[in-house]
Amino acid sequence: MTSQPTVKTLLILGASGDLTGRLLLPGLARLVARGHAQGLTLVGAGSDDWTEDQWLERLETSFADANSQADSAGKRELKRIRETTAYRQLDVTAEGQLAKLIAGLEGPVAVYFALPPKISERACQALTPDDVPAGTRLVMEKPFGSSEESARELNRTLAALVPEDHIHRVDHFLGKATVLNILGLRFANTFLEPVWNREHIEKVEIIFDEDLALEGRARYYDGAGALRDMIQSHLLQIMALMAIEPPASVDERDLRDAVATLLRASSIKAPYARNTRRARYTAGTLGGRQVPDYAKEEGVDASRNTETLAEVQVDIDNWRWQGVPFILRSGKALGTKRKEAVVTFRPVPHLPRGFTGVDSPNQLRIGFGPDTLQFDVDVNGPGNVLSLDRATLQAELSASELLPYGEVLEGVLTGDPLLSVRGDTAEDCWRILEPVLKAWARDSVPLEEYPAGSDGPEGWPA
Ligand code: NDP
User: Fold this and answer.
1) What's the 117 CA to ligand 1 centre distance in angstroms?
2) Is residue 1 scored above 70 in pLDDT?
3) Smallest Cα–Cα separation from 24: which of 91, 112, 156?
4) What CATH number should be reported for the domain holding residue 39?
5) Are residue 115 and residue 195 in the same domain, yes or no?
6) What percent of the chain is predicted at pLDDT more than 90?
7) How many domains does the chain divide into?
8) What is the pLDDT at residue 171?
9) Domain coverage including residue 291
């Protein structure tokens, strides 16, 4: 069934920016081409003195892919969006300018802040409750604040403008299909739930290893690093879904309550030199390409000691998970691309004497993008019936027909905040990470090195 937008106008602030061109507009195009955005008007805005033609050119390029794959109805919809769109120049931080723009648009309006984070904050501070008519949705990009306190402050600003369920804090990593795939696997199978706890699970790893290096993104990345960029938002969200208590429904209220409860029980404990690690890549070869030392990449300030690989152990202090380490790791320029959650079960208490061969603990692997499932089990044979061998049961999980940002926008346009990070959770994710950020800033944890294209520093588990 196609859900249609309740939002009438999508206003993208930062129309000339990288996010808009590379991710938002292509995501929107696929959504439009599949008939999920009927009746929607798109308005782009920015500080650049762009002509309508420049904006249309941008749409033409960003829509090209979706257009080439669309059926005739999809092509008509994409054409309609291009024919009804407009570009407005403004300084969003100047008093009254954004308010005036919103007032002139057909509501309800979704305001997408595709702006540098500080500018988004100032733009929201410049708005008053009277400037945002009922039904207005505010879409905030990551990073949401830079600490627990700043996230709280930003939440206060937003809460004065619109209700919480009209605020969309984007986490594009977790598409709807991925969220539902994890929940379906966990809660639609009676054999899993009884063993999904400290009695039977030894550890859970959530790994996002990229085989890409900096790719010219020093301006953003060098100020962030792997811990803030990936673990603070995306990987903690996945961890929460892997560990939450069974919700009564997959509605946003039940699900986001369960996620918030889980994260409130989570922390990274001292000593940080044991429970966290950080490293930075040096020159190496990646996919046949020479990659320079991170510290020598253009735009990088080496004295910042920005990590390109981070690993932390999160403890969840509740009945189910006490003592089970959740290892979260993410890095760039690694030899092997890996995006998965790996659940390692405890070994059997006693293997009957007489069996030979492999007896490794069971592992359940959930791969992300494309979503897959692998279950490693010990089985007999082939050949010698006493000899145990490893077999992997595999399945492909449901895939979305939309791009990740198409899923984000669908939630915004239909008024479903399921994929949005709730305000209390956004603050809590900073609370979990802050002691580590402080310990790293004090240099309590050494910054290790690994050659680009390797599997990380020596001594780190692969
Ligand atoms: P860019 O720097 O590429 O673009 C920022 C945009 O903001 C530009 O269009 C700029 O216009 C506009 N802008 C800046 N100041 C003002 C102002 N005062 N009034 C109106 N417009 C203004 O940033 P990105 O697109 O890379 O990032 C945008 C947001 O998305 C950030 O929060 C980022 O963290 C987040 N993000 C980005 C990702 C990416 O891959 N790029 C991925 C995930 C999140 P002008 O050039 O005219 O100043």
Assistant:
1) 8
2) no
3) 112
4) 3.40.50.720
5) no
6) 90
7) 2
8) 83
9) 176-400+422-451
Name which of 29-33, 90-94, 333-337, 458-462 the model is least confident about.
458-462
- Which atom of ligand 1 is found nearest the CA of 117? 32
What are the b/e assignments for 86-119, b being 16+ CB within 10 Å?
A: bbbebebbeeebbeebbeebeebbbbbbbbebeb
- Given a contact cutoff of 8 angstroms between Cβ atoms, the answer to whether 115 and 138 are in contact is no
298 in a domain, yes or no? yes
> What is the C-alpha separation between 448 and 313, in angstroms, rounded?
17
44 in a structural domain: yes
Q: What is the mean pLDDT of the chain?
A: 95
Active site residue 200: no
CATH number of the domain that residue 328 is part of: 3.30.360.10
User: CA 417 → CA 11, 256, 407, 422, distances in Å?
Assistant: 18, 9, 11, 8
Residue at which a domain ends, from 169, 188, 219: 169
User: Which tokens go with 287?
Assistant: 């996919």
Position in ligand 1 atom list of the atom nearest CA 16? 9
Q: Ligand 1 — pocket residues by CB below 6 A?
A: 13-19, 46-48, 91-93, 114-117, 119, 141-142
| Main-chain phi, psi angles of 291, to 5 degrees | -115, 130
Q: Using 50, 70 and 90 to split pLDDT, how confident is the model at 2?
A: low
Report the nearest-CA residue for atom 38 of ligand 1.
19
- pLDDT (tens digit per residue) in 426-439: 999 999 999 999 99
This prediction has a pTM of: 0.94
Which pLDDT band holds residue 147 (cuts at 50, 70, 90)?
very high
Last residue of a domain, one of 169, 190, 225: 169
AA letter at 90 = L
